[in-house]
Protein backbone atom coordinates (compact mmCIF):
# COMPACT_ATOMS: atom_id res chain seq x y z
CA UNK A 1 0.00 0.00 0.00
CA UNK A 2 1.26 3.50 -0.86
CA UNK A 3 2.54 5.35 2.22
CA UNK A 4 0.62 8.50 3.16
CA UNK A 5 2.27 11.86 2.54
CA UNK A 6 3.54 13.71 5.60
CA UNK A 7 4.44 16.82 3.60
CA UNK A 8 3.39 18.25 0.29
CA UNK A 9 4.87 21.43 -1.17
CA UNK A 10 3.08 22.88 -4.16
CA UNK A 11 4.80 25.48 -6.32
CA UNK A 12 6.54 27.21 -3.41
CA UNK A 13 8.24 30.52 -4.20
CA UNK A 14 10.03 32.80 -1.76
CA UNK A 15 11.67 36.14 -2.53
CA UNK A 16 13.56 37.93 0.22
CA UNK A 17 13.77 40.90 -2.10
CA UNK A 18 11.49 41.34 -5.11
CA UNK A 19 14.39 42.77 -7.13
CA UNK A 20 16.55 39.68 -6.88
CA UNK A 21 16.04 36.11 -8.08
CA UNK A 22 13.90 34.02 -5.72
CA UNK A 23 15.65 32.09 -2.93
CA UNK A 24 13.13 29.29 -3.56
CA UNK A 25 11.60 29.06 -7.02
CA UNK A 26 8.41 27.07 -7.71
CA UNK A 27 9.37 23.99 -5.68
CA UNK A 28 6.93 21.10 -5.68
CA UNK A 29 7.60 17.87 -3.79
CA UNK A 30 5.94 15.22 -1.66
CA UNK A 31 7.52 13.45 1.31
CA UNK A 32 6.06 10.11 2.33
CA UNK A 33 5.43 9.22 5.97
CA UNK A 34 8.56 7.71 7.53
CA UNK A 35 10.91 8.78 4.72
CA UNK A 36 14.09 10.78 5.07
CA UNK A 37 14.53 13.44 2.41
CA UNK A 38 18.05 14.79 1.88
CA UNK A 39 18.02 18.31 0.45
CA UNK A 40 21.31 18.67 -1.37
CA UNK A 41 22.86 21.58 -3.19
CA UNK A 42 25.63 24.17 -3.11
CA UNK A 43 25.66 27.00 -0.63
CA UNK A 44 23.03 29.64 -1.35
CA UNK A 45 20.74 27.42 -3.48
CA UNK A 46 17.78 27.80 -1.10
CA UNK A 47 17.90 24.64 1.06
CA UNK A 48 17.65 26.41 4.42
CA UNK A 49 14.97 28.77 3.15
CA UNK A 50 12.86 25.81 2.04
CA UNK A 51 13.35 24.13 5.41
CA UNK A 52 12.38 27.33 7.23
CA UNK A 53 9.25 27.62 5.08
CA UNK A 54 8.23 24.09 6.17
CA UNK A 55 8.96 24.98 9.82
CA UNK A 56 6.99 28.22 9.53
CA UNK A 57 9.92 30.58 10.14
CA UNK A 58 9.48 32.05 6.64
CA UNK A 59 6.34 32.75 4.64
CA UNK A 60 6.32 31.88 0.94
CA UNK A 61 4.94 34.52 -1.44
CA UNK A 62 3.14 31.84 -3.40
CA UNK A 63 2.44 28.13 -3.24
CA UNK A 64 0.97 25.82 -0.65
CA UNK A 65 2.50 23.87 2.27
CA UNK A 66 0.46 20.87 3.43
CA UNK A 67 1.68 19.15 6.60
CA UNK A 68 0.13 15.85 7.72
CA UNK A 69 -2.86 16.56 5.50
CA UNK A 70 -3.45 20.13 6.76
CA UNK A 71 -2.62 23.28 4.78
CA UNK A 72 -0.28 25.35 6.99
CA UNK A 73 0.88 28.08 4.58
CA UNK A 74 -0.35 29.63 1.35
CA UNK A 75 -3.78 30.30 -0.19
CA UNK A 76 -4.91 32.16 2.90
CA UNK A 77 -3.67 29.51 5.35
CA UNK A 78 -1.13 30.22 8.06
CA UNK A 79 -0.19 28.02 11.01
CA UNK A 80 2.55 29.42 13.27
CA UNK A 81 5.71 27.33 13.83
CA UNK A 82 4.80 26.23 17.37
CA UNK A 83 1.58 24.66 16.13
CA UNK A 84 3.08 22.70 13.23
CA UNK A 85 4.33 19.71 15.25
CA UNK A 86 7.77 19.83 13.67
CA UNK A 87 11.14 19.57 15.44
CA UNK A 88 14.22 21.47 14.32
CA UNK A 89 17.92 20.64 14.69
CA UNK A 90 20.44 23.33 13.80
CA UNK A 91 24.07 23.25 12.69
CA UNK A 92 25.26 25.01 15.86
CA UNK A 93 23.20 22.79 18.27
CA UNK A 94 21.56 25.87 19.86
CA UNK A 95 21.56 24.35 23.37
CA UNK A 96 21.00 26.47 26.48
CA UNK A 97 24.42 26.64 28.17
CA UNK A 98 22.95 27.10 31.67
CA UNK A 99 20.72 24.01 31.42
CA UNK A 100 21.95 20.43 31.77
CA UNK A 101 21.17 17.66 29.26
CA UNK A 102 17.87 16.63 30.84
CA UNK A 103 16.75 20.25 31.26
CA UNK A 104 17.63 21.07 27.65
CA UNK A 105 15.66 18.09 26.37
CA UNK A 106 12.69 18.79 28.65
CA UNK A 107 12.64 22.50 27.81
CA UNK A 108 10.45 22.17 24.73
CA UNK A 109 8.05 19.85 26.53
CA UNK A 110 7.51 22.26 29.42
CA UNK A 111 6.80 25.07 27.02
CA UNK A 112 4.48 23.16 24.79
CA UNK A 113 0.87 23.95 24.40
CA UNK A 114 0.06 20.27 24.85
CA UNK A 115 0.18 20.74 28.63
CA UNK A 116 2.04 17.51 29.46
CA UNK A 117 2.11 16.58 33.14
CA UNK A 118 5.38 16.14 35.05
CA UNK A 119 5.37 12.36 34.78
CA UNK A 120 4.96 12.45 30.98
CA UNK A 121 7.65 15.11 30.65
CA UNK A 122 10.04 12.97 32.70
CA UNK A 123 9.28 9.87 30.69
CA UNK A 124 9.52 11.57 27.27
CA UNK A 125 12.80 13.20 28.32
CA UNK A 126 14.31 9.92 29.52
CA UNK A 127 13.11 8.08 26.39
CA UNK A 128 14.57 10.71 24.06
CA UNK A 129 17.91 10.73 25.92
CA UNK A 130 18.06 6.93 25.78
CA UNK A 131 17.19 6.97 22.08
CA UNK A 132 20.23 9.10 21.25
CA UNK A 133 22.48 7.01 23.52
CA UNK A 134 23.11 9.60 26.23
CA UNK A 135 21.62 7.85 29.28
CA UNK A 136 23.84 8.54 32.30
CA UNK A 137 24.83 12.02 31.07
CA UNK A 138 21.58 13.76 32.07
CA UNK A 139 23.26 16.06 34.59
CA UNK A 140 26.09 17.23 32.32
CA UNK A 141 26.12 20.76 30.94
CA UNK A 142 26.75 21.47 27.23
CA UNK A 143 30.35 22.60 27.86
CA UNK A 144 31.03 19.19 29.45
CA UNK A 145 30.03 17.37 26.24
CA UNK A 146 31.78 16.77 22.91
CA UNK A 147 30.35 18.30 19.73
CA UNK A 148 28.81 14.98 18.73
CA UNK A 149 27.19 14.59 22.15
CA UNK A 150 25.84 18.13 22.02
CA UNK A 151 24.26 17.40 18.65
CA UNK A 152 22.70 14.24 20.12
CA UNK A 153 21.16 16.41 22.86
CA UNK A 154 19.78 18.74 20.19
CA UNK A 155 18.32 15.74 18.37
CA UNK A 156 16.81 14.38 21.61
CA UNK A 157 15.29 17.79 22.30
CA UNK A 158 13.71 17.87 18.84
CA UNK A 159 12.43 14.27 19.16
CA UNK A 160 11.08 14.48 22.72
CA UNK A 161 7.72 16.08 21.77
CA UNK A 162 7.31 13.28 19.21
CA UNK A 163 6.89 15.56 16.20
CA UNK A 164 5.50 14.28 12.93
CA UNK A 165 8.43 15.78 11.00
CA UNK A 166 12.03 16.54 12.00
CA UNK A 167 13.90 19.27 10.13
CA UNK A 168 17.69 19.07 10.31
CA UNK A 169 19.70 22.01 8.96
CA UNK A 170 23.28 20.89 8.22
CA UNK A 171 23.32 19.13 11.62
CA UNK A 172 26.72 17.51 11.19
CA UNK A 173 28.67 20.32 9.54
CA UNK A 174 30.43 21.42 12.72
CA UNK A 175 31.69 17.95 13.62
CA UNK A 176 34.97 16.37 12.67
CA UNK A 177 34.90 13.76 9.97
CA UNK A 178 34.98 10.60 12.12
CA UNK A 179 32.13 11.73 14.37
CA UNK A 180 30.24 12.94 11.36
CA UNK A 181 30.43 9.60 9.55
CA UNK A 182 29.25 7.69 12.63
CA UNK A 183 26.55 10.11 13.63
CA UNK A 184 24.96 10.35 10.19
CA UNK A 185 24.19 6.63 10.21
CA UNK A 186 23.00 6.84 13.81
CA UNK A 187 20.65 9.71 12.99
CA UNK A 188 19.13 7.60 10.23
CA UNK A 189 18.80 4.54 12.51
CA UNK A 190 17.17 6.61 15.26
CA UNK A 191 14.66 8.18 12.87
CA UNK A 192 13.87 4.80 11.34
CA UNK A 193 13.48 3.18 14.75
CA UNK A 194 10.73 5.58 15.71
CA UNK A 195 9.34 6.00 12.18
CA UNK A 196 9.73 9.78 12.16
CA UNK A 197 9.85 11.54 8.79
CA UNK A 198 12.68 14.00 8.29
CA UNK A 199 14.25 16.54 5.98
CA UNK A 200 18.02 16.69 6.21
CA UNK A 201 19.74 19.69 4.61
CA UNK A 202 23.32 19.17 3.49
CA UNK A 203 25.81 20.31 0.87
CA UNK A 204 27.70 17.01 1.22
CA UNK A 205 26.70 14.66 -1.58
CA UNK A 206 28.01 11.53 0.14
CA UNK A 207 26.05 12.39 3.29
CA UNK A 208 22.85 12.92 1.30
CA UNK A 209 23.26 9.75 -0.77
CA UNK A 210 24.15 7.54 2.18
CA UNK A 211 21.33 8.38 4.56
CA UNK A 212 18.36 9.50 2.47
CA UNK A 213 15.40 7.59 1.10
CA UNK A 214 14.86 10.45 -1.36
CA UNK A 215 17.31 13.12 -2.43
CA UNK A 216 16.23 16.52 -3.72
CA UNK A 217 18.98 18.35 -5.60
CA UNK A 218 18.54 22.12 -5.56
CA UNK A 219 20.10 24.75 -7.78
CA UNK A 220 19.45 28.49 -7.69
CA UNK A 221 16.18 28.05 -5.78
CA UNK A 222 14.83 25.30 -8.04
CA UNK A 223 14.46 21.61 -7.33
CA UNK A 224 16.52 20.22 -10.18
CA UNK A 225 15.84 16.54 -9.47
CA UNK A 226 14.04 14.44 -6.86
CA UNK A 227 14.64 10.71 -6.65
CA UNK A 228 16.18 7.86 -4.71
CA UNK A 229 19.94 8.11 -4.18
CA UNK A 230 20.41 5.40 -6.81
CA UNK A 231 18.26 7.24 -9.36
CA UNK A 232 20.05 10.52 -8.76
CA UNK A 233 23.47 8.91 -9.09
CA UNK A 234 22.83 6.67 -12.06
CA UNK A 235 20.37 8.86 -13.99
CA UNK A 236 21.22 12.49 -13.30
CA UNK A 237 18.53 14.61 -14.92
CA UNK A 238 20.83 17.45 -15.85
CA UNK A 239 24.44 18.33 -16.34
CA UNK A 240 24.34 20.24 -13.04
CA UNK A 241 23.12 17.17 -11.08
CA UNK A 242 25.66 15.00 -12.87
CA UNK A 243 28.49 17.33 -11.90
CA UNK A 244 27.34 17.95 -8.35
CA UNK A 245 26.36 14.41 -7.38
CA UNK A 246 28.57 12.09 -9.37
CA UNK A 247 32.31 12.20 -9.74
CA UNK A 248 32.49 12.49 -13.48
CA UNK A 249 34.58 13.91 -16.28
CA UNK A 250 32.94 15.76 -19.14
CA UNK A 251 34.78 15.29 -22.38
CA UNK A 252 33.91 17.34 -25.50
CA UNK A 253 33.01 15.05 -28.42
CA UNK A 254 32.08 15.40 -32.11
CA UNK A 255 29.95 12.90 -33.93
CA UNK A 256 31.32 11.29 -37.05
CA UNK A 257 29.20 8.47 -38.44
CA UNK A 258 28.81 5.90 -35.72
CA UNK A 259 31.54 7.35 -33.54
CA UNK A 260 31.91 10.08 -30.97
CA UNK A 261 35.39 11.48 -31.49
CA UNK A 262 37.27 13.04 -28.60
CA UNK A 263 40.82 14.19 -28.13
CA UNK A 264 41.62 10.97 -26.25
CA UNK A 265 39.97 8.52 -28.62
CA UNK A 266 36.66 7.62 -30.25
CA UNK A 267 33.65 5.97 -28.69
CA UNK A 268 31.02 4.04 -30.57
CA UNK A 269 27.52 5.52 -30.55
CA UNK A 270 25.40 3.11 -28.58
CA UNK A 271 22.15 1.73 -29.92
CA UNK A 272 20.99 1.64 -26.33
CA UNK A 273 19.12 4.61 -25.09
CA UNK A 274 20.79 6.86 -22.62
CA UNK A 275 19.87 5.63 -19.09
CA UNK A 276 18.13 8.91 -18.41
CA UNK A 277 15.97 8.41 -21.46
CA UNK A 278 15.97 12.14 -22.04
CA UNK A 279 16.56 13.13 -25.62
CA UNK A 280 16.81 16.27 -27.70
CA UNK A 281 13.44 17.76 -28.53
CA UNK A 282 13.64 17.11 -32.27
CA UNK A 283 14.96 13.59 -31.61
CA UNK A 284 18.02 14.19 -33.77
CA UNK A 285 21.41 12.95 -32.63
CA UNK A 286 23.46 16.12 -32.17
CA UNK A 287 26.75 16.70 -33.96
CA UNK A 288 28.60 17.55 -30.79
CA UNK A 289 28.23 17.05 -27.09
CA UNK A 290 30.06 16.12 -23.93
CA UNK A 291 30.59 12.53 -22.87
CA UNK A 292 30.11 11.92 -19.17
CA UNK A 293 32.82 9.54 -17.97
CA UNK A 294 32.46 8.53 -14.34
CA UNK A 295 35.79 8.44 -12.54
CA UNK A 296 35.13 4.93 -11.21
CA UNK A 297 34.26 3.60 -14.69
CA UNK A 298 37.44 4.73 -16.42
CA UNK A 299 39.93 1.99 -17.32
CA UNK A 300 43.54 2.92 -18.02
CA UNK A 301 45.98 0.84 -20.07
CA UNK A 302 49.66 1.79 -20.51
CA UNK A 303 50.38 2.77 -24.14
CA UNK A 304 53.36 4.89 -25.20
CA UNK A 305 51.43 6.22 -28.20
CA UNK A 306 48.32 7.18 -26.25
CA UNK A 307 47.30 10.82 -25.89
CA UNK A 308 46.69 10.84 -22.12
CA UNK A 309 49.44 11.53 -19.63
CA UNK A 310 49.32 10.47 -15.96
CA UNK A 311 50.20 13.67 -14.14
CA UNK A 312 49.61 12.55 -10.58
CA UNK A 313 48.40 9.64 -8.48
CA UNK A 314 46.75 9.82 -5.07
CA UNK A 315 46.42 6.91 -2.68
CA UNK A 316 42.89 6.98 -1.20
CA UNK A 317 43.06 3.86 0.96
CA UNK A 318 40.81 1.57 -1.06
CA UNK A 319 41.72 2.93 -4.49
CA UNK A 320 44.00 5.22 -6.45
CA UNK A 321 42.81 8.45 -7.98
CA UNK A 322 44.71 9.43 -11.09
CA UNK A 323 45.02 12.92 -12.42
CA UNK A 324 45.29 12.78 -16.23
CA UNK A 325 46.17 15.41 -18.79
CA UNK A 326 44.71 15.49 -22.29
CA UNK A 327 46.63 16.92 -25.29
CA UNK A 328 44.65 20.18 -25.00
CA UNK A 329 45.61 20.49 -21.32
CA UNK A 330 42.22 19.45 -19.92
CA UNK A 331 42.33 17.55 -16.64
CA UNK A 332 40.51 14.22 -16.28
CA UNK A 333 40.28 11.93 -13.26
CA UNK A 334 40.08 8.18 -12.85
CA UNK A 335 39.71 6.01 -9.77
CA UNK A 336 40.95 2.45 -10.00
CA UNK A 337 41.63 -0.57 -7.76
CA UNK A 338 44.93 -0.85 -5.96
CA UNK A 339 46.12 -4.05 -7.61
CA UNK A 340 47.94 -2.57 -10.62
CA UNK A 341 49.27 0.88 -9.79
CA UNK A 342 50.42 2.88 -12.81
CA UNK A 343 53.44 5.19 -12.50
CA UNK A 344 53.18 8.95 -12.83
CA UNK A 345 54.58 10.23 -16.16
CA UNK A 346 53.49 7.39 -18.43
CA UNK A 347 50.93 7.57 -21.23
CA UNK A 348 47.70 5.61 -21.05
CA UNK A 349 44.83 4.60 -23.30
CA UNK A 350 41.42 5.31 -21.83
CA UNK A 351 38.34 3.13 -22.00
CA UNK A 352 35.15 3.03 -20.00
CA UNK A 353 33.66 0.01 -18.26
CA UNK A 354 30.02 1.07 -18.51
CA UNK A 355 28.40 0.03 -21.79
CA UNK A 356 26.49 3.27 -22.20
CA UNK A 357 27.93 6.69 -21.55
CA UNK A 358 25.53 9.60 -21.15
CA UNK A 359 26.08 12.41 -23.62
CA UNK A 360 25.09 15.92 -22.71
CA UNK A 361 24.62 18.73 -25.18
CA UNK A 362 27.55 21.12 -25.15
CA UNK A 363 26.64 23.94 -22.81
CA UNK A 364 25.90 27.23 -24.48
CA UNK A 365 23.48 29.79 -23.14
CA UNK A 366 20.74 28.51 -25.44
CA UNK A 367 21.09 24.73 -25.17
CA UNK A 368 19.31 22.63 -22.58
CA UNK A 369 21.49 20.81 -20.07
CA UNK A 370 19.72 17.49 -19.97
CA UNK A 371 21.57 14.42 -21.23
CA UNK A 372 20.88 13.03 -24.66
CA UNK A 373 22.21 9.94 -26.36
CA UNK A 374 24.73 7.45 -25.07
CA UNK A 375 27.96 5.99 -26.35
CA UNK A 376 29.57 2.65 -25.72
CA UNK A 377 32.56 2.33 -23.55
CA UNK A 378 35.71 1.68 -25.59
CA UNK A 379 37.87 4.37 -27.05
CA UNK A 380 38.74 3.19 -30.55
CA UNK A 381 42.20 4.73 -30.59
CA UNK A 382 43.46 8.25 -30.69
CA UNK A 383 40.76 10.40 -32.20
CA UNK A 384 43.04 13.22 -33.25
P1 LIG B 1 21.39 27.44 1.40
O1 LIG B 1 20.74 26.93 2.63
O2 LIG B 1 21.23 26.50 0.23
O3 LIG B 1 22.82 27.83 1.60
P2 LIG B 1 19.73 29.78 1.76
O4 LIG B 1 18.34 29.31 1.77
O5 LIG B 1 20.37 30.08 3.07
O6 LIG B 1 20.62 28.76 0.92
O7 LIG B 1 19.83 31.09 0.86
C1 LIG B 1 19.22 31.17 -0.43
C2 LIG B 1 19.39 32.58 -0.95
O8 LIG B 1 18.61 33.48 -0.15
C3 LIG B 1 20.81 33.11 -0.88
O9 LIG B 1 21.03 33.94 -2.00
C4 LIG B 1 20.85 33.92 0.39
O10 LIG B 1 21.78 34.96 0.31
C5 LIG B 1 19.43 34.47 0.43
N1 LIG B 1 18.95 34.68 1.82
C6 LIG B 1 18.87 33.74 2.78
N2 LIG B 1 18.34 34.27 3.91
C7 LIG B 1 18.11 35.59 3.66
C8 LIG B 1 17.57 36.66 4.41
N3 LIG B 1 17.16 36.49 5.66
N4 LIG B 1 17.46 37.86 3.80
C9 LIG B 1 17.84 38.04 2.51
N5 LIG B 1 18.35 37.07 1.74
C10 LIG B 1 18.48 35.85 2.30
From TrEMBL:
Its EC number is 7.6.2.9. It is found in: Cell inner membrane. Pfam families: ABC_tran (PF00005), TOBE_2 (PF08402). Keywords: ATP-binding, Nucleotide-binding, Transport. The keyword Nucleotide-binding applies. Residues 7-245 form the ABC transporter domain. This is ABC-type quaternary amine transporter. It comes from Coleofasciculus chthonoplastes PCC 7420.
Amino acid sequence: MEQAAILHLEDITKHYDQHTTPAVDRVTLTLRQGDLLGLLGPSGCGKTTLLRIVAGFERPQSGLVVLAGHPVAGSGYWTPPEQRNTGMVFQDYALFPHLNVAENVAFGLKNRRSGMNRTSIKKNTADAIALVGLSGLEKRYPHELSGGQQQRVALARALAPRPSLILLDEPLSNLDVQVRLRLRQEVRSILKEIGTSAIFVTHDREEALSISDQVGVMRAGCLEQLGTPEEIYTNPASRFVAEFVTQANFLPARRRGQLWETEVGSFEISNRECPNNIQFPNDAIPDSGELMLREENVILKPDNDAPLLIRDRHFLGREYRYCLQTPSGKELHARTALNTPLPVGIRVQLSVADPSIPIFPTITTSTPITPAYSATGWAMGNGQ
